[in-house]
Structure formats: C-alpha cells, structure tokens
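BUG: 3D viewer hangs when loading the predicted structure for this chain

Environment: internal workstation, default settings.
Expected: structure renders.
Actual: progress bar stalls at 90%.

Input used:
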Amino acid sequence: MSVVSTRIKNTNKLRIKGSKAIRALGHAATYHYKQTRKYTGEAYITHPIAVAQIYSDNCTGEPDEDIVAACLLHDVVEDSDCTFTEIAFLFGHDVAQYVQQCTNPWPKKECNLRVMKRGALTVKACDMIHNLQDIVDLDPKWAKKYVSDKAKIAHHFISIEPKIYKLLINTIDNCERELAKWEAREVLNEK
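Structure tokens produced before the viewer hung:
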C-alpha cells in the first residue's frame, strides 16, 4: 500500500447525528443500491460514506448536518434518477444546492468553483480527497491527468475548513510524489 493509499477503513466511526444526516444515508444507500466503484468493485455507497467521514473527521467542532447530508448525497443525481427537487423537498434548499454544485455537468466546472458556496466546496474537496487516495495505485496512467487537473484547481478551496484544505493539498502532493516514483519505475522497466 502506498503513501497515497490512506483509505477509509472504519466507517463505524462516522459521526452522523441528527435525522437529516441519517435520512440522507438511507436515501443514498437506496439510490446507490447495486452500484459499484469503477476501480475497486466495492459497493458504491462506501464512497459517499467515506466522503462524509473525511468531512466529519476533519471539520472544526461538530459536523454541519447539511454538509454531512450533502456528502452522502453528492452523487445521487448524477448516478441515478433522483432529482434536485426531491433532495430539496426531503433535505432542504442548502443540501440540494450543495449537491447541485457538486454534480457533473454543472456548466463550465472551472468557473463554477469561483461561485460555489463554502458548503459545496467542502463537499467537493472531500470527494476529491477520497477519489485521489487510491487512483495512483489503481490506474497510474489516468491518475497523471486527474492529479494534474486537481492540482490546478486546488487554490479555489482555500476558504474551506483549514484541516480539510490541508488534507487536500497533502493528498495531491502525495499523489504527485507517487506518480513520479511510478514514472521512474516505468522508465527503468523499459531499459
């Protein structure tokens, strides 16, 4: 396991408090039922749980229930027939807005980072952290572009929780180091 691979292992430590976050977990589990992660084959629900855990483990004070809910729901519209209207009705306007701003495609992603609400930026950063954690090990060729793209936009996240921003920057740095090692091994293997 590489330095980059710091996967979420204990989802039982997730600090989900309040009915909104608990309902969001159930809603996400329902919509992600039978979906799997592209590279690992794990049940897809492990990803939103990990994103919520990254947030709850690194936020200052008690986790914001709307942000936890949005972490859990951030992919449901993109990956299912769930709608923003449904999320707004069940979880409130802020959660729906955070999810919408984290959903692909949201017009011109690069520009949107400048106008995203702090809560949505926080969810997006935690999502990026989790996606970056294993990508170098699982698909280093694709990771080279992915990590480079994330490094170029990382400065947009400076307004989020300081520990989460630092974790994002450290994760990108670790990925870049691991990719440099991978590329060096590839060059040696060619000789």
